[in-house]
Structure formats: C-alpha cells, structure tokens
Design brief:
The protein is α/β, with parallel strands linked by helices and about 375 residues long. It contains 13 helices and twelve strands. The protein has two domains: about 5-40 and about 275-365, Aspartate Aminotransferase, domain 1 (Alpha-Beta Complex); about 40-275, Aspartate Aminotransferase, domain 2 (3-Layer(aba) Sandwich), CATH 3.40.640.10. Helices cover about 40% and strands about 15% of the residues.
Length: about 375
C-alpha cells in the first residue's frame, strides 16, 4: 500500500466541488463561484491573434513585460500600491499565488490567521506548508468584517502571517479603510506578512476597496482576471510585493509552473488595457441578481445580510447540512457554511453568478423546503 504524506492526510477535497457530483442534471447550481458571462470579445480576440502569431512558447518566469508593466500601472494608479514590473509575478490564477505565499514563507509550526468564515483554500494551503491555521471568528453583527481587535486577540509570538480577503468569499463583506490601515500598522510593528486576496476587487457595490499594500510593504497583494473579466478558464492572476519577497516567491513559481500560459497572458493584457465598460455591465447585473436573492431569502425567513462585494450571499439557516440536503432534493445546489470554517456552521453559501431567471426559479424551489427556523 502506498501511503500519502502526513501533510496531505489532513486535507479534505473541496465541499464545493463535491456538491456537483451528487446533483441532478436539472439542478440549478448556486454553489460555484464562476461568472456565467462569456469572456468579453476583445479579450477572446487577443487570444486568437496570439495563436495566429505563434505566441505559444514559454515566457519569462515572472510573465511578459508588457503585462507586468500594465499591472504595475494599475496598482500605482488605482490602489496606491507602489509597484514596478520587477515586483510582480504573473501566476496561474490567484490560487497559485496563495499557494506560493504559504510555501515560500510558512515554516512548520508557524501560525497564520485567516478569516472564519473564509475561502477554504487558505486553510488547506497553510496545512500543506505544515503551518498552523488560526481562524478568526468573524461576527455577523459586524457584517463578517475582520477587525484589529480580532487580530490582536489572537496574536502570539508564533504569528507569521495574516490572510485578508476583501471583498470576501463567502460572505461578500468589504473591509473598511480604517480596519485595513490599522491591521497594516500592526503587521509593520510585529513584522508579520499580510497576504491580501483581492480577487473580487472590482465586484463591489457602493463600498470602496482598499489594499493593505497602500499602507505597508509587508503586504503581498494578490489579484487576477477570473472574476472581473469572466476569465476563470484562462487561469491567470498575479501577485505584487517588495522585491526581496518576490525573489523568494519566484523560487516556488519557477519550480511549480515555470510561467503562466503565454496566450492567457495576452488575454490578461487585453483585459487590463482594453475597455472597462464590460466590467460595469457585469457588476450592474450582479447587483440586480443580488437584490433579488437577498429579498427572496429574507422573505422566506432566512436572515441574509446585503453583501457589499463579490457574488455570494451567506444566509443564516441554523442547520446548514439539513438545508443543503433539502435544497438538493428541490434541485438547488448550495454549499454548507462549515466548508468555510466553523463560524460558518449555521449558514450556507449561495452564488448569484447564475442568471437572473435561474436565481428566480431556484428561489421558487427553495420555497418548498420542508423545514423552517
């Protein structure tokens, strides 16, 4: 018998993906975090052009210069993050970027604070690096936003890093500038790394996005193109940090993937430099879907906060496993909240990245759930 490494034994396969295997072909999937829009035409055209020009070979490990220049310009102008092409690595999605950070900087026994509820990859990546996850229980009364007090209450001499995610998956919460600034100052004072997952930066409704990279150079800023430009299958993202941090991250990237896909990098360049009206159109439609889902869930008695960003609701249902099971019987796929941490145990995650009509039908089906609070 072949035995897996101990660090792999502690990892569970994603409950999000698991739900797809048990649903019927008639089910409406509110479980996946993927925009249902087609990738905008000018981005697809960039791929066609790259193929016709034979741009199908390895690129620089860090990514093509033109893309890194465009990302640096975006970070400086939009996020007030000091960046240049040498301080950026183009990655195979934000997922690789998160994995790179934990592999490069987390030693066995190091503690890493993560939001609870929070994206399930954080815990898995920390465990694969043999670090110790320290979940910060986020309060529904505070709209699931992480605060300085949450961090200070869990700070120890083993704390190596903090993972921030704003806008948040799974709750849609958006951290306030004052909160990010205060946590950034603490990171400076305690020499802690901030790993900032900003993949939903552009999918935001009325609130303002702020990056810790604006306030400290102890931050690693992670972003990408999957959610904003409906480019999930392109698998292209990036991270930015000061150059000594980048040098260590590059070691992981170089031996893990060598470089991001050449044609995906050309697509990303077209996305970041091209017209942005497509982003506004998608976000406006997400807002319309959000309002429908939140209203219907609250009308059914499932307490649901209005998310300020991303494309998820996180209704309180008390018994999440039972809710997910009953929803599945009615051909609606949802994800149990404990997949995102113990503090999500009384909730479920629903994505409004499905179409408006699908959401309407799904809400009609959920009216049939045979248990209530």
């Amino acid at each position: 018998m072949i035995y897996p490494a101990n660090r792999v034994k502690s990892i569970q396969l994603s409950q999000i993906r698991k739900m797809f295997e048990v649903c019927s072909e008639n089910a409406i999937n509110l479980g996946i975090g993927e925009p249902d829009f087609d990738t905008p035409p000018h981005i697809r055209q960039a791929v066609i052009q790259a193929l016709e020009e034979g741009f199908t070979h390895y690129t620089f490990n860090k990514g093509i210069l033109e893309l890194r220049e465009a990302i640096a310009k975006k970070l400086n102008n939009e996020n007030k993050v000091k960046a240049d092409p040498d301080s950026i690595i183009v990655t195979v999605g934000a997922s690789e970027a998160i994995y790179m950070c934990t592999q490069a900087f987390i030693n066995k026994g190091d503690e890493v604070m993560i939001p609870d509820p929070g994206f399930l990859s954080y815990d898995a990546c920390i465990k694969l690096a043999e670090g110790i996850t320290v979940p910060l229980p986020l309060k529904i009364e505070n709209d699931f936003r992480m605060t300085l007090e949450d961090v200070e209450n869990n700070l120890t001499n083993k704390t190596k890093a903090i993972i921030l995610n704003s806008p948040s998956n799974p709750t849609g919460s958006v951290m306030k500038k004052s909160e990010i600034k205060a946590i950034s100052k603490l990171a400076e004072d305690e020499d802690i790394i901030i790993i900032s997952d900003e993949i939903y930066e552009k999918i935001i409704y009325g609130a303002s996005h702020h990056s810790p990279g604006e306030f400290t150079d102890n931050a690693i800023v992670i972003n990408g193109f999957s959610k904003t430009y409906a480019m999930t299958g392109f698998r292209v993202g990036y991270l930015a940090a000061r150059e000594d941090i980048i040098e260590e991250l590059l070691k992981i990237h170089q031996y893990n993937t060598a470089c991001a896909s050449s044609i995906s990098q050309k697509a990303a360049l077209a996305a970041i430099e091209g017209p942005q009206d497509c982003v506004k159109e998608m976000v406006d439609e997400f807002r319309r879907r959000r309002d429908l889902m939140v209203r219907r869930l609250n009308d059914m008695g499932w307490e649901t906060k209005i998310p300020e960003g991303a494309f998820y609701t996180f209704p309180k249902v008390k018994d999440s496993q039972k809710f997910v099971s009953e929803a599945l019987k009615n051909d609606v796929v949802t994800v149990p909240g404990e997949a995102f941490g113990q503090n999500g145990a009384e909730h479920v995650r629903m994505s409004y990245a499905a179409s408006y009509d699908e959401i309407k039908t799904a809400m009609d089906r959920l009216e049939n759930i045979n248990f209530k609070l």
